[in-house]
Design goal:
- By secondary structure, the chain is an alpha+beta fold.
- 13% of the residues lie in helices and 31% in strands.
- It contains one helix and ten strands.
- Strands 1, 2, 5 and 10 form a four-stranded mixed sheet that branches. A four-stranded antiparallel sheet has the order 4-3-6-9, with no helix packed on it. Strands 7-8 form a two-stranded antiparallel sheet.
- It is globular and about 45 Å long.
Length: 143
């Protein structure tokens, strides 16, 4: 390999490594979901990038709710953070309606919240959020 080939290869590797380590795992996004003041203890919070507000991320981070209504969103198992930007939020929360029928599920919150286009929920992920910035309050009453 010639010296100029090595330099070229080194330059390419530097650009590749810089792109891979640019910190795009994002920020820790942790919050609580309350329905009429009570923790929502089942379901998943889904972050859909809002292209209309400039978020062109290809990831759709999500986080499962725990018994206290707390979630922590992740891009993937290996990327626990969420890229900065605006997201439309949806929440899928279902429980089994009939224990004898494994396909009988019902939503425990109004179904509008399961669709990012109808939920009316959005959040901006930032580097240093204020306490409670990612908390979500819902009403179980349909408008």
């Amino acid at each position: 390999m010639t010296m100029s080939s090595r330099r070229c290869l080194c330059s390419v590797m530097v650009f590749i490594l810089a792109g891979c380590s640019r910190g795009d795992t994002g920020s820790l996004v942790k919050g609580k979901v309350l329905v009429d003041g009570q923790p929502l203890t089942v379901g998943t919070v889904i972050f859909t990038p809002d292209a209309a507000k400039g978020n062109t991320s290809l990831h759709e981070p999500r986080g499962k709710l725990d018994a206290n209504g707390v979630y922590q969103a992740s891009q993937t198992k290996d990327h626990p953070g969420v890229a900065p930007g605006w997201y439309k939020i949806s929440i899928s929360a279902q429980r089994m309606k009939d224990a004898k029928d494994p396909y009988s599920y019902e939503s425990v919150i109004p179904t509008k919240f399961a669709n990012p286009e109808t939920s009316g929920l959005s959040l901006e992920v930032v580097g240093k959020p204020a306490p409670g910035a990612y908390d979500i309050a819902l009403s179980a009453k349909e408008p």
